[in-house]
Amino acid sequence: MRNLINQLTFGFALLLGACSGPQYDEASVPDEHRFTQEVFLTNLNEPVELEVLPNGQILFVQRKGGIKLYDPQNMRMVRTDSIAVFYGFEDGLMGMAVDPNFDQNNWLYLYYSPVGDEPKQHLSRFVYDENGLSDEKVILIVPTQRDECCHTGGSIEFGSDGLLYLSTGDDTNPFKSEGFAPIDDQEGRSSFDARRTSSNTNDLRGKILRIKPEDDGTYSIPAGNLFEDNDPKTRPEIYVMGCRNPYRITVDQKRGWLFWGDVGPDAGDNDSLKGPRGHDEMNVAMKPGYYGWPLFIADNKAYGDRDFETQRVDGYFDPKNPINDSKYNTGIKNLPAATPAMIFYPYSPSEEFPQLGQGGRTAMTGPVFYTAKGMDKKNGFPSYFDERLFIYDWMRDWVYTVKVDENGVASDYVPFTPSADYRNIIDMDFGNDGMLYMIEYGTAWFKQNEDAKLSRISFDRGNRTPVMKVKLSESVGSSPLTVTLDASDSEDYDGDDLKYVWKIGQEEFESASITYTFTENGVHYPRLTLTDGAGHTLMEQFKIEVGNDAPVVDINIKGNKTFYWPGRNIQYDVSITDKQDGTLNHGIEREEVNFDILYMDGFDQAQVLGHQMPVTSGEYLISKSDCMSCHKINDKSVGPSFVEVSNRYKTDPDAIEYLSAKIIKGGSGAWGDHAMSAHPDFTQEETQSMVEYVLSLGEEKPALRPLKGIYTADDKEDKKLIIISAQYEDKGAQGMSNISAVKSIMLKSNVLKGSESIENKNIEANKNGTINRVYHEGWLAYDNVDLTDIVSLELRTKLLSDQPVLITVKANSLEGSEIGKLTLTERDKNFTSHEIPLHINTGAVNKIYLIITGQTKDQNLVQIQTLKFNPHD
Predict the structure, then answer these.
(1) Where in the chain are all domains bearing CATH 2.60.120.260?
(2) Bridge partners of 438?
C-alpha cells in the first residue's frame, strides 16, 4: 500500500511538472534578454542617490536640492520637495538614506552643503511624510573649504545593525599636481594638500565614517571603529580613512562588509620621481583601515615624497610605515599600515583587470544581492546573484557582478546587460521586490539632461514578452493621406512566431506592415495587437491627424555650413511653405515667423535643435516649465501677467536678483496670497535668463530681424555656438490643430577642443577638453565638418614621445584620401600650433580623421589641445 501511495505521489508530481512547464534554472548565468529596463522618468536634473521605500515608492534626490518621490505602481510623481543648498564646485545635496525603521518613524537622512558663508557639510535627519520635509536635526557637521574644487563624497548607507556609514571626499584641488599626489603643504596652499584631510586622523574628510544615530538626533560611537583610544588627535567616527572621492558606497546586509568605489587621480603615465599613474579603485573593508590616499594608490603603489617648493622628491612613502609629516596635519604622524585596493584600473587597459576596458573612469559600487522572502517570484532577480556585488563605472557605462571571498578578493566577473545603453549610472539599489532600481545622471556634467532617468530592471523567468517596435511614415497631412505602419522590427527573444493585427476603424489587417490611405479628415487611431506563441499580448494605439499639412521651414546658408569665423559675414535666407497657408509674403507674413540668430554660450544645444526655438533662451525655458500654468503674457491668470511684472520691476536695479531668487525659492505676498511654487531645479543663470525675458516684455519691441540678410559674427573668441533658427506655426485646417515646424542651424566656432571627437581609439581626454593620452595607431574622428572655403588645419599639440610622431589627416574614413599630414619632432616638446595645408577637391566632407602613428606601442605619444580651421582670406 505504501509503495502504491509513493507511486501515485510521484506520478502526480510528474503530472504537475508537466502541466506547469519547464522550470527556470535559478543557478544558471542569466540571459541578458530576460532583463527589461522600464523607464519611469527622464530629463532629470543631476540625480545623485535613491532609496526604494518599504511601500515600493522610489525616493531620489538631485544635487541642486530637489527631493522627489515617485510611485511606479500608479506611474506618477507623489511628492516634490527641496532644500536650499550651496552647489558650487561639486557641492550640493549629495547623499540620502532612509532610517531602517522608516515605516514607523519617517526619518530621512540627508548629507548636503548648507547655504551661507560658512563652508561645511551637514548630515541631518528630517521627518519625511505626506507634508514633505520637516523637523531637521543636524547630527554631524563636516567643516570644508569653498575656495577650491573638488571631491565631496556624500553617500549614506545603513548596515543591518542600524549603524550609519557616510562617505566624505578629500576636499582638495587635484589640478595643480599634474595628476599625481596632491601633497603641496607650502604656505597658503592647504587646499592643495590631501594629507590635511584624507591622511589626517583628526579630520572627517577623505573618510568613511561609521556612527550610531540616536533617537534624540545625536549620535554615539560604535565599538570597532579605527580609533578607540580617546586620543585628541584622532576622530572616533572614522571607520575608513585614506579615500580620495568615495562617491558611492554599499554595505553587505548579511556579512556586514563595506564596499565603495574611489575616483582616482588623472596622471596617465608613471613618473620615475612623482610616482604611479592614476587608478580608480573599488574597495572592501571587513574591518576598519587606512586605504592610502594621497600617499598610495591601487595596490599600494607609492607616490614620491615631493617638495612642491623645490620640486625635489625625497624617496617614496612606505605603505607598511606611512608617515604624514604635512604642516597641515593636525592628527597623529604615524599612520596605520595601508590596505591595498580590491580592484584598480587606469585609463589605459589594465594588466590585472583587463575586462574593465579602457577610457575615462569613475568607479562605483552598487548593492550586494540576496534572495529574500516577499520578493516578486516572477520578476525579481534569480538566486544566481546571491552574494554577488554589483560594480559599475559612471564613465564607461558598464556593470559587472562579482564574487568577493572572505579574504576580500574579487573574482568571477560577469557583465550585466552588456548590450544596454546606459547613460552614466550614478546609483542603484534593490527593492524588496527583488528588482533593481537605477538612476542615470545623463551625459553632460552639472546640468539637466534629457537622458538622465529613473528606471527599474526586472527579470522574466518564463517565456518573454515580445518587444513592439513601430515606425509610421506620416502622422499628419491633408486628405488623402497614405501612411505606412510598419511593426516588422518587433522582436521575440524566444523565437516565437509573432501575430500582428492592425485595426483601423472596423477594418482589420493581419500583417507586420501595412499601407493605408486615410480619406476622411479628422483624427484616426490605428491600433496594433501583437501576440507571441505563448499568449503574451501587447496593444498600442497610434495617432494620425488628417486634414492639415505640416509647414516646411528651411534656412539656406551660403558658404561653409559647419563653422563661423569671428568678424566674418554669414549670408542666410529663410523660406517657409505651407500647403494650406501659402508662402512668405503670400499668405504668411513676417510677423508670424519666429526668427532669431543667437549665441548659445553654455546653453544646451540639444534642447534647442529640433524643437521650437523662441526668440530668447529665457522664453524657451519658460515655455518648457510650469510657468504658463499660472501666468499669461498679457492676461492675468492665477498670477500676474508677465507684462504686469515687467511694468512693476523694469526700473528696479535689484529686480533680476530678487525675481531670480523668487523663482527658485517660491513664496507669496507680492501679488496676493497665492504662493508661487519653488523651482529648485533651475540654476541661477537659467532664472536670470527667464527674468530678463519677462522684463523685456514691457519694453518697446525692436524691429524684426529680416528673414534674408547678412549677419556678422561676434569678433570675440569665447563664443561657442551660433544658432540660426526659424519657426512657424500654421493656422490649422479642416478642424485639425495647428502644426508647428522649426529649422535650426548650428554654426560652431572654428576652434574645436581635441575632446570634441565623436569616435576615437587609443586616446584619452581630460576634463578641460585636451586629448592628453594618445597611443600608437590611435585616431580621432570629427563629425559634420564642412571644408568649403577652408585652406588649412591648425593643430595645437605637445610631443611626449622621444621619437617623431606622424599625424595624418584623412577625409570621410580611416581608409579615405589623405588631405594633410604633420610630423612632430624633438623641438615640439612644448604646446605649439602647427598649420597643416589641406589638399581637397570638394568641401562635401562629413568627417575628418586624425591618425597618430608612433614608434613605441605603449608610450603616450602626444597631447592635442585644439583644432583650428582656417578659411580663405
Answers:
(1) 751-871
(2) 428, 455
